[in-house]
Design goal:
The complex is a heterodimer of chains A (201) and B (95).
Chain A: H1 3-6, H2 13-44, H3 46-53, H4 58-83, H5 87-117, H6 125-128, H7 132-164, H8 173-198
Helix pairs in contact in A: 2-7, 2-8, 3-7, 4-5, 4-8, 5-7, 7-8
Chain B: H1 9-34, H2 38-60, H3 68-93
Helix pairs in contact in B: 1-2
């Protein structure tokens, strides 16, 4: 039962939406702080950032971008379908979003595994032997892509809860809307990370 | 008025598909300019990337249909960041 229904009040979509946007504002501030750190450190170590960027796998970064963009499309179409009273179609599209999000994490897992296999991970002796600017680049890379991956996991958990707990119904439109808002913000963060790390060289 | 005012369902879905196609095309453009050298890559970072983010905010996140209150929440967060970035670059420029 929604909080409104518990108190005999009509549902208020704006309240749910406003609460979500206030939360998203804190998320923007969180990633914004890291973007500021990136900008400051890149200004201090431009050549090292360029060299370290050459070690990134741009193809995997671009592939994951296409996966996330497509997952945003299916999420938006899922909400659109639920608003039109088509829960089965909405469920299928949201399941597609879930699958694409899992695919993103699998690719990310391969990418991180390769980095770790090559001795590039926080605290490794190979990383410690690199110039300070390159160490900082990889520190930011693991911090920002790691924090982003945690957000992907959180979004997927919300979608799994929506799909698993009785499935999508029109009564859960606000829940789906806020879940997709979060997912799209996660997409925006990745849109920013692609050129900062994968195309930095 | 802050309630969402979705467009007609079929046209809304067509818009989402067009936005997705534009995002994919802009990603291709970004990759292309990043191969042309540091100056085009930086130009791409500062123009194509905000444009892509803006498309997601405006269409996928329904800001197009949102009222002043929700837009103000986003502008407050982004505006704060813009001020911080301006101070950072001003500091770097005169250091």
């Amino acid at each position: 039962m929604s909080p409104e229904a518990a108190h005999g009040l009509p549902p208020d979509p704006l309240r749910a939406r406003l609460g979500m946007w206030l939360f998203l504002a804190t998320e923007i501030t969180l990633f914004g702080g890291l973007l500021l750190a990136y900008a400051y450190l890149r200004l201090r170590h431009p050549a090292e950032f360029h060299r370290a960027g050459a070690a990134m796998n741009a193809a995997l970064g671009v592939a994951n971008t296409l996966v996330l963009l497509t997952s945003s499309l299916t999420a938006a179409l899922s909400l659109s379908a639920l608003r039109r009273g088509l829960p089965a179609r909405a469920t299928g599209l949201l399941a597609g979003t879930l699958g694409l999000g899992l695919g993103f994490l699998v690719v990310k897992g391969f990418e991180w595994s390769a980095k770790i296999h090559h001795g590039l991970y926080p605290g490794s002796s190979r990383l410690a032997a690199l110039p300070p600017g390159e160490q900082v680049f990889f520190g930011l890379y693991f911090t920002m892509t790691g924090l982003h991956a945690l957000h992907v996991l959180a979004g997927l958990s919300v979608f799994a809860a929506l799909l698993g707990n009785g499935g999508l119904t029109r009564a859960r439109t606000a829940f789906l809307e806020n879940g997709t808002l979060f997912w799209h913000l996660v997409d925006v963060v990745w849109i920013l990370l692609l050129p900062l790390f994968y195309l930095a060289a | 008025m802050d309630a969402a005012r979705p467009a007609s369902p079929a046209s809304a879905d067509r818009t989402y598909l067009r936005v997705w196609a534009a995002l994919v095309a802009l990603t291709g453009l970004l990759v292309l300019v990043s191969r042309l050298g540091p100056a085009p890559a930086l130009a791409g970072l500062l123009t194509v990337t905000p444009l892509k983010a803006g498309l997601v905010f405006w269409f996928f996140m329904h800001l197009r249909e949102a009222g002043a209150l929700l837009r103000t929440v986003l502008l407050a967060a982004l505006g704060t960041l813009v001020i911080f970035f301006a101070l950072l670059f001003a500091d770097a420029a005169f250091r």
